[in-house]
Specification:
Helix 4 crosses helix 5. 62% of the residues lie in helices and 12% in strands. It is of the alpha+beta class and 114 residues long.
Amino acid sequence: MDETTYINADEKTLKIIDEKMPPEEELQDLAEFFKVFGDATRLKILYVLLSAEMCVYDIAAVLGMSQSAISHQLRVLKQMDLVKNRREGKTILYSLADGHIVTILSQGLDHIEE
């Protein structure tokens, strides 16, 4: 803000805002986290994994996409800790990382359906 900007909020309100505001680094991490949800393919993959643990081949078949496209998006989702994987023989199976992902998707959908 420059010198010509005036804040009408009182000191108590400004203190509350300051206490609730996360550190800059956390805000940047949060922004990156939410960017992941800005891609329809990644959202489709997450919704597939809501129903079942699956390998790349099966996810690609369900979504009618190439395995390489699915692998690329799974890599992004894994880097952001939204999905996890486990090996079963030669097959790698993917699933949602935790219940928070279900909550985020559910609340996001509830919000846009209002």
